[in-house]
Write a structure and sequence with these properties.
With about 650 residues, the chain is α+β, with helices and mostly antiparallel strands. Helices cover about 35% and strands about 25% of the residues.
């Protein structure tokens, strides 16, 4: 007789095995109508699942994140059903849930069109309204292969053939459509109301460019129309904020085919880059780092010894000369160990914190390149801390402090942490990995930050804490990392002298706060929609004359502000003042200083903000005070 325990600790006894749907119905008709799935003993299951023993039960509705995932999963099946009805010769392959939606890949003799997409979406609504029950059944591996081959679904048969024979295969049916799937799914297609097909794309079978190209249809699904509308608004805003478009509009940078994945920084963009770089340098000084510079090209022998050659060879750019193979560095870790090894270090010298704006090259696939967000030439705000084992927690805690300070200074308040543990392909024994993982977990718990586990996603030499920022549109960006490494210093023969005069291998903390400078600047552009705060803006003010008569005064003001260290420009063009104001407003300059005869005679400036607010006439020292206050926000200089 199973006893079902609900989240509020109520217990419901039953005199025989019972389905989740029956339990939910006993709780109330309203809940039964809203239920999409359930968690039994924390495992997500269909409502048709039978509970045979005592268990905990949580009902999942569209209000739960898991419920939205179920909706999207089921809507992917609805998409496939609609395609099969409209285009019977199309073959279905895979259709997973992704962030904010789903996709399904199809093999079809011609390319789908936007008109097809509209027809498919209409068919999906028609099918959902038929209120098909979604049922699950189990098949043996051989039976399932034969079943799908008979349907002409060769790709499904191939997928099943690669599934281990010990794994249970489940099939879900709605109307005339059957698909292979682990589930769970909604109990009835009537729950599938709020969805939209978004775009078409190509995708290689199994992600291998040597295989046939399939057609991918992307879609999104939500709990209600309000959530869908909010999502579409975010997409519209993201389109407006696209750093590639804003980079061109504001003349910050460009990229071109002759140097794929590499950035041509223009004067304003490079000024922005240098402001970010100098800010990080200030933090390096505050946290007692020493900045270094290491070579770009290093013999493969060093990369082999560190383990990077085996792990990252495919991502390295390689060159040869005089019968020696070299790699252009993809990261700086082994090179920083070489700096540490020059000279003898005592235990009193530790921690030793070495930092570098490391210029790295990675052979990223051309199809993955995306503006500043994914490049082949990147600069990491990289650092390696050489420490004693008893310093691990104190130094890692300081790194968390540094990371949070930096992100908050740049305007990011929603920061999440992921603890990534040992990957399958790793070096070092399990006892060391246990020690390293436990140390980072203690650091996170002692700091009281919210964190989640990413099993198997650590570096090959140690576990790591990854940091994700949530921007103003709710998007997450992977940026910084802190990695605990007991392996590389020993592999590269690094040591220090302890209190007893013995040679001891140091522990190494790898850390990057921004990660890739290029990527972080791309995130900043999109987060602020290029309306940077004054301290960060590449141009903080532009001085505009009304007529040629004010040219000398404009140049005088320009020189004074530049000598004070502000980033200012003047615009002495023979254009109407309204035209110049509009142009520099579009350039998102924080302050415009308008100079006419009145300002010249009064030795003043008329100040206009980026938002169009007229701040009135000011004496130049008063404007300087305003600019100093804005540009020195949070203790930063200009």
């Amino acid at each position: 007789m199973p006893i079902i325990t609900l989240p509020d600790n109520r217990q419901l006894p039953f005199d025989q095995p019972v389905t989740v749907a029956t339990v939910v119905a006993s709780i109330g008709a309203g809940l039964a109508k809203a239920a999409l799935a359930a968690k039994v003993n924390d495992v997500l299951v269909d409502l048709s699942y039978t509970i045979e023993k005592d268990a905990t039960l949580k009902v999942i509705t569209a209000k739960d994140p898991e419920g939205v995932e179920v909706l999207r999963h089921s809507t992917a099946h609805l998409l496939a059903q609609a395609v099969k009805q409209l285009f019977p010769s199309a073959q279905v392959t895979i259709g997973p849930v992704i962030e904010d939606g789903f996709y399904y890949d199809f093999a079809f003799e011609r390319s789908f069109t936007l008109e097809d997409l509209a027809a498919i979406e209409a068919k999906m609504h028609e099918l959902a309204a038929k209120n098909y029950d979604v049922t699950r059944r189990v098949m043996s591996r051989d039976e399932a292969i034969a079943f799908f081959l008979e349907l002409g679904e060769e790709y499904k048969a191939k997928i099943i053939a690669d599934i281990p024979p010990t794994e249970t295969l489940s099939l879900y049916q709605q109307g005339d459509f059957v698909d292979l799937c682990r589930g769970p799914h909604v109990p009835n297609t009537s729950h599938l109301k709020t969805f939209k097909l978004m775009k078409l794309a190509g995708a290689y079978w199994r992600g291998d460019s040597n295989n046939v190209m399939l057609q991918r249809i992307y879609g999104t699904a939500w709990a209600d129309d309000k959530a869908l509308a909010a999502y579409l608004y975010r997409l519209e805003e993201a389109e407006k904020r696209d750093h590639r478009k804003l980079g061109k509009l504001l003349d910050l940078f460009h990229m071109q085919e002759e140097a794929p994945g590499m950035v041509f920084w223009h004067p304003k963009g490079w000024q922005l880059y240098r402001v970010v770089e100098e800010y990080i340098r200030q933090k390096l000084r505050e946290y007692d780092y020493q900045e270094i510079r290491t070579p770009q090209i290093v013999d493969r022998i060093l990369w082999e010894k560190s383990g990077h050659w085996e792990q990252y060879r495919e991502e390295m750019w390689v060159t040869s000369t005089e019968n020696r193979d070299y790699a252009i560095k993809p990261m700086s870790c082994p090179l920083h160990v070489q700096v540490f090894k020059q000279g003898l270090h005592s235990y009193r010298d530790l921690p030793l914190r070495l930092a570098e704006f490391g210029s790295c090259h990675r052979n990223e696939a051309s199809g993955t390149l995306h503006g500043l967000m994914r490049v082949r030439h990147l600069t990491q705000d990289d650092a390696h801390l050489f420490i004693r084992e008893d310093q691990i927690e104190s130094e890692a805690t300081k790194l968390l402090d540094l990371v949070y300070e930096v992100y908050q200074d740049f305007g990011f308040e929603d920061i999440s942490c992921r603890l990534s543990t040992r990957p399958e392909n790793r070096i070092g024994d399990d006892a060391v990995w246990d020690k390293a993982e436990e140390a980072l977990q203690r650091v996170l718990n002692n700091k009281g930050v919210n964190w989640s586990l990413q099993p198997g996603d650590g570096a090959f030499y140690g576990p790591k804490i990854d940091f994700k920022l949530r921007d103003c549109l709710g998007r997450e960006w992977q940026c910084g990392t802190v990695q605990l490494d007991f392996q590389l210093p020993g592999r590269l023969d690094a040591y220090y002298i302890d209190e007893a005069g013995n040679k001891v291998v140091p522990v190494m903390l790898h850390r990057a706060v921004l990660g890739s400078m290029e990527r972080f600047i791309g995130v900043l552009i999109e987060h602020f929609a290029a309306k940077f705060p004054v301290w960060l803006a590449p141009v903080q003010a532009v001085i505009l004359n009304v007529s040629d008569k004010q040219g000398e005064y404009v140049q005088k003001i320009h020189k004074k502000l530049k000598n004070l260290g502000f980033r200012v420009e003047n615009d002495l063009r023979n254009e109407k003042i309204g035209f110049k104001i509009r142009e520099h407003t579009l350039q998102k300059v924080p302050y415009l200083l308008i100079i006419g005869d009145k300002e010249v005679s009064g030795n003043t400036v008329t100040v206009r903000s980026r938002s169009g607010e007229d701040l009135g006439e000011m004496l130049l020292p008063d404007f300087v005070s305003l600019l100093e206050k804005e540009s020195a926000l949070l203790g930063r200089g200009s």
